[in-house]
Amino acid sequence: MRPTTPQAEKAPTTAAPGRHARREGFEDGALLTVEDVHVRFHTRNGVVHAVEGVSLELSEGEVLAVVGESGSGKTVFTRRVMGLIAGSRDTEVSGTVTFDGITLSELDAKGLSKVWGKEIALVLQDPMTSLNPVKRIGAQITETLILHQKLSKQDANARAIELLRSVGLSEPERRVRQYPHELSGGMRQRVTIAIALSCSPRLLLADEPTTALDVTVQAQILDLLGDLQSRLGMAMLLVTHDLRVVRSRSDRIAVMYAGRIVETAPTKDLFDSPRMPYTEALMNAVPPITGPNHVRLAVIPGRPPDLLAPPKGCRFSPRCPYAQDRCLTEEPPLRDAADLPDGSAVEHSYRCWYPVGTPENAEARRVNVERGETAAGTPVTGEMVPA
Amino acid sequence: MAEMTISTPPTTAAPPGETPGKAPRGGRRKAAVRRVRRRLVHLLIVLIAVTFLSFVVIDLLPGDAAVVVAGDNATPAQVAQVRTDLGLDRPMLVRYVDWLGGVVTGDLGRSFRTGQPVTEALAQRIPVTFELTIIAQVLALLIAVPLAIYSAYRPGRFVDRTSMTLGFGAAAMPQFVFGMVLIVLFAGGLTSILPATGYTSFFTDPLGNLRTIILPCLTLMIAEAAVYRQLLRSDMISTLQEDYILMARSKGLGPRTILLRHALRPSSFSLITLSGVNIGRLLGGTVIVETLFAIPGLGQMIVQAVFNRDYMLLQGGLLFVAVAYVVINMIIDLLYLVLDPRVRRDA
Asked: Which residues of B touch A195 (CB under 8 A)?
């Protein structure tokens, strides 16, 4: 056995960032453009509007975090971006997804399979279920290499060992002969990352890559992802429900709620001055490390909305401590924070009639505390609303 | 059963000069030995239970082998003489122990009726039934597996609906009705391209053998194919919902690779189990088909032995059926080791 290195000693690819040649006629700008994407599922109980008019852009080498509670549509959104969810008898999709000048949303299965695994790769949440239990680790890595890079079986196997080493797995020569059940959760997620990165994709979609892992392993995997991302210069869409995860690991954040983007901003701006009450509530739900012990944790009252019958007006209004009458009837558009009195942030937009940090918001809070409940009837106490 | 080899799963080539494969291989062999040993104990218990039970049942049945053997016009004294000759005057337990002793030395006794050694009768009958069973199983799987895979790939579409309707129709029809339909169609009714009854040994006339077993095999196969299709289809559909299939799709693999290389193996466990149970069952139970097509198989022999109170022959037949059943299930058990690497560790 060769001596093993616990951390990556060699990037999975020998190429440097920015090595990808720009496509002919491709204008400088976003690598991925998502415009007005909708996904509706027709179920027996009605239509579930899982993703509703989401638009965003991702530049080459950029890390965009998509944050939201479970059921906010972030997983469906990710899969639609990739094209894994397509229109069918009970699935309705619309909007366009453009990747590197190619309109993914217009490609058929054959066209998509040329992009998948090669240009765009996916890492799923649970490595216990995302690896085939009856196939050896090696075979699961080499199949993409043989398919997309036309490597011979021997070369692909050598490359698989190299890839496993680069994601920090010890004894890669032995691992390729093993089955997934012989590895721990963290090791398996390293394997799925090695698979995703095997063909040096330009975009990685990571759907809650650490949610199913032990807390101690989570940071390691996230650091590994960040490390590989910057080394390969690939763009990454990091989907998570955990704001802590993305604070130091993303360039930009998009907060999703009930199938919509409710706030998007550069990471620092979002943490410095969240505008959407939902973002604020998410931040308050994270216990401060430096705070005193045994303090009641702030929770967001109520449940995520039923996507079969989403609330009228602002989707967050039934749970929002600032909700006024207008919030119940009129849905706020995505507005630019630069228009706010103190707003200087670039590319910061939000959906709210009473954005956090404005006099309107302070007034709404005062009104609600005074009457003891919001316009939607949610009880409000001084404790629940941060001063 | 000897020609049924256990194939190793497709593996990637190991890098030259390295032997990382040693450990899992050894583990598999050890697990296999453990399983075989456990099954052998199982086999012994099953054999004793089956043969003893049939001894008891035969003994309790009204009717007397001696009367049958002595013939209709025999005097009571003749019957008593025959009874003594056959050893039937001894207590049941003594006869059973005596028979068991014979089994250990490979002597299964002689048929009361014909005097033929039971081992010889079995040697004539077993290959016939075995041929029917195996060919019917292979045909059923050859038809069911591709249909199931395609139906799971496109559920609710034409292939799925059509094969489901036809399958249910076939499975709902009693075996002998289907057999008679085949006879009407091919053997004397509308056309006479195939013989309706009889059996030709493969070794005397391979083509004639084929012609005589086609209709019986089709009759045996049709209901099984329908069940196999249904079973594999639904297992496959649930496998296709798995995350690792989504992962395989996201790698850009084509539907062929995903269905055959990723989804088929993890979907096939119940199919293999059922197929094993069916082979075991058919080896002793193709009576209806053997009777309908006048095929001298094991099932026919056992039924005749029951009517004739030919309990030596019956015991021999039942012994084989029980052994075959346990051995086939043992093979299935070993097949799991090949199909599912997770089984190798536990157990």
From this structure: 247, 251
Tell me the count of A-B CB pairs closer than 8 A. Answer: 110
Nearest CA among B290, B316, B294 for reference residue B305: B316
- ipTM of this complex > 0.90? no
Whole-number Å distance between alpha carbons of B28 and A257: 50
Strand arrangement, sheet containing A260-266 = A120-123, A203-207, A235-240, A63-67, A252-257, A260-266, A349-350, A335-336
Structural tokens at position A222: 């996230």
Q: Which residues have a Cβ under 8 Å from the Cβ of A348 and sit 6 or more positions away?
A: A263, A264, A265, A266, A269, A270, A275, A336, A337, A338
- Residue B319 is classified by DSSP as H
User: Looking at beta carbons, which residues of chain B come within 8 Å of A174?
Assistant: 20, 23
CB contact under 8 A, B252 and A114: yes
Number of helical H runs and strand E runs in chain B: 16, 0
**Cα–Cα distance measured from residue B296 to residue B317, given in angstroms and rounded to the nearest whole number:** 13
Which are the contacts of B88, defined by CB distance < 8 A and separation ≥ 6? Answer: B64, B65, B66, B95
Would you give the distance in Å from CA B165 to the centre of its chain?
26
**B14 contacts chain A (CB < 8 A):** yes
B73, exposed or middle or buried, with CB in 10 Å at 0-12, 13-18, 19+? exposed
Nearest CB to B262; choose among A124, A132, A181? A132
| Contacting residues of A for B27, CB less than 8 Å apart | none
Cross-chain residue pair A122–B247, CB shorter than 8 Å: yes
State the Cα–Cα distance between residues A88 and A193, nearest whole angstrom: 30
B281 touching A, CB under 8 A?
no
CB count within 10 Å of CB A341 equals: 7
d(CA B80, CA A368) in angstroms, rounded, equals 108
Residues of B (252-271) whose Cβ lies below 8 Å from A: 252-255, 257, 261-262, 265-266
Per the structure block, which two tokens stand in for B232?
């594999």
Q: How far apart are the C-alpha atoms of B214 and B217, rounded to whole Å?
A: 5
Comparing CB atoms, the residue among A122, A136, A157 nearest residue B250 is: A122
Contact by Cβ (8 Å): A132, B248: yes
Alpha helices in A151-207 (DSSP H): 153-166, 172-175, 185-197
Return d(Cα B292, Cα B179) in angstroms, integer: 7
Of residues A118, A132, A177, nearest to B244 (C-beta) = A132
DSSP-derived pairing of the beta strands A30-43 and A203-207: unpaired
Q: Which of B139, B164, B152, B175 is nearest to B290 (CA)?
A: B175
Distance CA A126, CA A210 (A): 8
Per-residue CA distances from A354 to A314, A350, A358, A368 (Å): 11, 11, 7, 13
Show pLDDT as tens, one digit a residue, over chain A (387 residues).
444 444 444 344 433 444 344 444 444 578 999 999 999 999 998 999 999 999 999 999 999 999 998 888 999 999 999 999 988 889 999 999 999 999 999 999 899 999 999 999 999 999 889 999 999 999 999 999 999 999 999 999 999 999 999 999 999 999 999 999 999 999 999 999 999 999 999 999 999 998 888 888 898 999 999 999 999 999 999 999 888 888 889 999 999 999 999 999 999 999 998 999 999 998 888 776 676 777 777 778 787 888 888 888 999 999 999 999 999 999 999 988 877 776 666 789 999 999 998 999 999 999 999 888 899 888 886 554 454
The answer, for A331 touching chain B at a CB cutoff of 8 Å, is no
